Known about the structure:
Shape: globular
Number of helices: 4
Radius of gyration: 15 Å
Distance between the termini: 16 Å
Strand content: 25-35%
Number of strands: 7
Amino acid sequence: MILKGSQRGAASNLSAHLMNDRDNDHVTVLEVRGFIARDLHGAFAEAHAISKGTKCEQFLFSLSLSPPKEHTATEQEFLDAVDRAEAKLGLTGQPRAIVLHEKEGRRHAHVVWSRIDAKTMTAINLPHFKSKLNDLARDLYLDHGWVLPDGLRR
Length: 154
């Protein structure tokens, strides 16, 4: 899977974008974990409120997961990839939300974690996250037997 991640704020804009059913044929909230709120808007508002106790402005980490065009990933494949990314990035156990989008027959996923450790009220540092995600993307392609894109070949 191609993995693209970024640190970000603007929680309300992100939740509106992820729930946008005008640009996507189907939008499914697969999981909301670790938040008191059970909906995406409430969960991201909660993450924003907690971040106010810190100096962190980019309190979320957003990751998009796109399988190859010729493969339709299952929910379980997305969940496995998300769990592996979470471990690799050092976000294990952090509150997260997973949203599936389907557009023109292609399915992709988005996961958003809170970067704020609520126990210590500090932001989790994500050094070299692009390198880690590239390594994981390569591993996912190899594990599934997919043809590696040029950018992931060594």
